[in-house]
Amino acid sequence: MKNLMRRVGVVTGAGAAAFGMAVATASAVPSTTWTVTPSPTNFTATNSGNIVLTANIPMTCTTSSASGTMQSATGNPATVANINAINFGTSGSPCTSVLGNVTTTAITPWTVVVHDYTASTGVTKGHVGNVKAKVTAGACVFNVEGQASGTYTNSTGILAVNSLSGELKVTSASGCGTVVTTSTKPTFKGNYAVKVAGTSTIPKIVGSNP
Fold this sequence. Notes:
Blueprint: H1 2-27, E1 33-37, E2 41-47, E3 51-55, E4 57-61, E5 64-70, E6 73-74, E7 78-88, E8 102-106, E9 110-118, E10 123-137, E11 140-153, E12 158-162, E13 168-174, E14 187-196, E15 204-208
Antiparallel strand pairs: 1-6, 1-15, 2-5, 2-14, 3-4, 3-14, 5-7, 7-9, 8-10, 9-10, 10-11, 11-12, 11-13, 12-14
């Protein structure tokens, strides 16, 4: 009986060790080298189509622009860009909603974080992180924080922001009634055309495993 129990213990221990190795292997995330060309560089971005923030109601901007810096990085995920300024609407072309004109004040820097690259398409997946902004729509004022999923395409230079429900949250709201509350899950969607500052050059992002 003791010999039987000993053999069972050995087999169980070996199985557990193998399982542990399998879990460790499956959960390991290899470091990735992210090559930004040129690097480091300053960039500018302008909207291509409307930018829409939806917090139960859509808030639409026909003009939006951003600027910041890009640089090569190592890791997965990795930060390849800092958005140091981002503007929504202008005095002559304000963002609009059913509550009235919308003013959005971004608290920067925001970041561009990457985690997956497909060489055949030149598309990088990631998200815009550290998003913080104060939004005023008529008498409604609320603050938004979180991140927004997106992709970057080397051939076009388009940063396509397409956030998922729950990535952004309303941290406070006033004057909004039941339209926008701290239970609201905003979404942020829109495309930005990215260029090296002062040029027509499209920056490239390429990920590889060393």
